[in-house]
């Protein structure tokens, strides 16, 4: 028996001197071999060498001056870190993306743009703010005092519709209002007088003398409960009649602006003179 134990000891010592192990089971795979430049003695492996694993992820992480670089698996399948762009601040419990100084004000501090292709929601069950995109509204910003921000009528919404018009209000789509043309510098158009004209700009020069009976309202004006005004600058003395949707007849004076305001409730235009 002593001879057998002595032989086993000699074999183990010779194997360790060569620095080779057939297999060592581990929690995430198996170590298949260990190679070192000198014999392994007791304790952790400190000699220069390599450890080969069948399913291990290995790499070198550097401790720098920034707090908490977050380790990740690189494209090469090794552990890596970015000590200037992706860090966890363990003191303030905040995450820095695009920076390594998230501070204490925000739970996530981002340097750069955030792309949310289908929309985003910020808030709690008590109230939320969110934004989404769809073909009907192009873009919508919503405030809602509930947890189902996109499910029902919002408390307040701001939308830019497909026609490029800003709408503000409540309800599923917001009350239409030509705010874009009210507050921005608008393009001045020229329209020839006709029985029916369809201005799309707020300011319009009118040429010709054909009586105007109907003015097609821009889309935002026609939303229920909405309306809006346009300005017509007569380049010739045309007239308006009550044969269509104009509430009272007018004779335009050359170079004197004629303002008409539309009421979606009555579907009529009301001229300033």
How are the secondary structure elements laid out?
Blueprint: H1 2-18, E1 24-26, E2 29-36, E3 49-53, E4 72-73, E5 79-80, E6 86-89, E7 94-97, E8 108-110, E9 120-124, E10 127-132, E11 139-144, E12 156-160, E13 166-169, H2 179-183, E14 189-192, E15 196-197, E16 203-207, E17 214-215, E18 227-234, E19 239-240, E20 250-251, E21 258-263, E22 268-271
Parallel strand pairs: 7-8, 14-16, 15-17, 16-18
Antiparallel strand pairs: 1-2, 2-3, 4-5, 6-7, 9-10, 10-11, 11-12, 12-13, 18-21, 19-20, 21-22
Characterise this structure:
The protein is mainly beta and 273 residues long. It folds into four domains: 2-53, no CATH class; 59-114, no CATH class; 120-175, no CATH class; 185-271, Jelly Rolls, CATH 2.60.120. It is built from two helices and 22 strands. The chain has helices spanning 2-18, 179-183, and strands at residues 24-26, 29-36, 49-53, 72-73, 79-80, 86-89, 94-97, 108-110, 120-124, 127-132, 139-144, 156-160, 166-169, 189-192, 196-197, 203-207, 214-215, 227-234, 239-240, 250-251, 258-263, 268-271. The strands form seven sheets. It has a five-stranded antiparallel sheet with strand order 9-10-11-12-13, with no helix packed on it. A five-stranded mixed sheet has the order 14-16-18-21-22, with no helix packed on it. A hairpin with a 2-residue loop joins β1 and β2 (29-36). The termini are far apart. Residues 1-28 and 171-184 have low confidence and may be disordered.
């Amino acid at each position: 028996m002593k001879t057998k134990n002595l032989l086993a000891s000699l074999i183990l010592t010779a194997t360790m001197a060569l620095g080779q192990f057939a297999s060592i089971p581990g929690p995430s795979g198996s170590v298949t071999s260990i190679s070192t430049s000198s014999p392994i003695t007791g304790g952790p492996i400190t000699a220069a060498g390599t450890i080969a694993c069948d399913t291990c992820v290995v790499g070198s992480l550097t401790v720098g001056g920034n707090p908490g670089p977050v380790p990740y698996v690189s494209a090469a399948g090794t552990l890596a870190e970015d000590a200037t762009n992706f860090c966890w601040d363990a003191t303030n419990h905040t995450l820095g993306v695009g920076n390594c100084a998230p501070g204490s004000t925000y739970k996530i501090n981002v340097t750069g743009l955030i792309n949310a292709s289908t929309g985003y929601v910020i808030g709690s069950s008590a109230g939320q703010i969110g934004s989404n995109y769809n073909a009907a509204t192009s873009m919508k910003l919503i405030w809602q005092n509930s947890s189902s921000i996109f499910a029902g009528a919002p408390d307040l919404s701001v939308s830019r519709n497909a026609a490029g018009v800003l709408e503000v209000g409540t309800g599923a789509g917001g009350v239409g209002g030509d705010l874009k043309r009210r507050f921005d510098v608008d393009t001045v158009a020229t329209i020839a007088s006709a029985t029916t004209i369809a201005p799309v700009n707020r300011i319009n020069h009118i040429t010709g003398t054909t009586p105007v009976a109907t003015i097609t309202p821009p889309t935002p004006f026609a939303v229920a409960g909405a309306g809006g005004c346009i300005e017509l600058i007569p380049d010739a003395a045309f007239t308006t009649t009550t044969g269509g949707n104009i509430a009272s007849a007018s004779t335009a004076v050359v170079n004197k602006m004629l303002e008409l305001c539309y009421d979606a409730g009555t579907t009529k235009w009301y001229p300033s003179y």
